Amino acid sequence: MDNQRGLIRGVPAVMGNYYGKSLGVIDLALAYQDGHWQVQRDATHAEVRQIKNPDGTSVAADEDMEHLVRDEDAGTIAYVKTPIGRSDYPVNTYFVAAGETSALQLVNMAQRDYVEKYIKSNLPQYASLPVLSSMSPLKAGFGGPKDYTDIAPGPLAINNAADLYLYPNTLTAVKLSGAGVKAWLEKSAGWFDRIDPGKREPQELINLRFPTYNFDVLQGDLAYAIDVTKPDGQRIADLRYHGKFIVVTNNYRASGGGRFPGLDGSNVVISTTDANRDVLIQYVKAQGELTRARHGTDRNWHFVKVKTAGPVVFTSAAGKLELAQAAGLDNVTLVKDKGDGSAIYAIDLSK
Hints:
Blueprint: E1 7-8, E2 11-12, E3 22-27, E4 30-33, E5 36-39, E6 45-50, H1 63-80, E7 83-87, E8 91-92, H2 102-122, E9 131-135, E10 150-151, E11 154-157, H3 158-164, E12 170-177, H4 178-188, E13 203-204, E14 217-219, E15 223-226, E16 236-240, E17 244-250, H5 251-254, E18 268-275, H6 276-287, E19 289-290, H7 292-295, E20 301-303, E21 312-317, H8 321-326, E22 332-337, E23 342-347
Parallel strand pairs: 7-19, 9-17, 13-21, 15-20
Antiparallel strand pairs: 1-2, 3-6, 4-5, 7-11, 8-10, 9-14, 12-17, 12-18, 15-16, 21-23, 22-23
Helix pairs in contact: 2-6, 3-6
C-alpha cells in the first residue's frame, strides 16, 4: 500500500471520508499505446481534498459543475420533500443507549408488516412462525453531536424516512431458532461497556469502538434484558421466546455483514429487491398519522437493574434532556454540557 500516491498494489484507490466530508480524487494519467489507452501508473495519484477551509468555511463551488447539476439538484430536493404522513411525537435517536428506541420501533413495525403480508401471500408454510424485525440506530453520534436522527412532530416527508434509514439496503428475512436469536442479541449487546458495580469513578456505558449500526434491536413477540455487568456473550437475560422465528433484516446483515453469529446467507427465506427505506415510506403513507401510543412505546428490552457505587455516563447531543423525559426516561440526568454541541448524561441502572 502506497499512502503517499494512493495506490493499493499499484491500483489507484481513494476513500473520500463519510457523509461527503471530503472529496476523493483520482488523477488518472492515460497514454494511447499499441492501439488502446493504458494507465500510466507512475504518473497517476489519488488524494483526499477537504471541502472546508481552515477557518471552517466551505471551499468555493465550481461554477461549471453547479450549472451542470442545477436542475438535477432542484429535482432531488423537491422529491425528498414529498409528504408521506404526519407524526404527533418527536422521532429521534439521542437516547437509544438508554432504551428509548421509538425510532427503531417505527422501522421494525414497517418491516414486520411487509413480511407478514408477504408470507401470507407467498410462503404459507411459514405462517405459523412469529415474525421479528431487526433495526439499529444508523445515526447515533458517531459523526459528532449533529449525527443523530431528529424528526420534529408534524408533517413527514421522504427525507425524514431517509434520515431514519440511510442505506440502500434491501429487505431480507432469515429463519432462526431461539438460540440463533439469542446469539444475535448477544452480539448486539457488545455496544455497551462492561460495568463494575463497585467502581466509584465514572464509567462509560457505551463501547466507543463498537459501530452503532451493529446495535440491532429485535422487536415483535419478544422481550429481553441486557446485563451490562456481565462479559460479552453472557449479557442477555430474561429472554422470552418459543420455537423458531422469521427475522426481518436487510441484505447486508443477512449475508454476514457485521459478522453476526449464524448469519452467513445460508438461512435466508425471503430476499426482495425492495429497499428497507421504501418499505418504511410505504408503511408511513398507509398509516397516515403516527402516534406515540401506537408507534413509539414498545420498550421490549431493558437493563438488568443494578446499583452502582459511581455514575454510569454516556455522551449525546446537548440540550436534549427534555426529549428523554418526554419519552419516559426518568433515570437519565444531565451531568455536564461540554460546550461543543455534546453533553455528558448519567443513567441510573438501579431504576
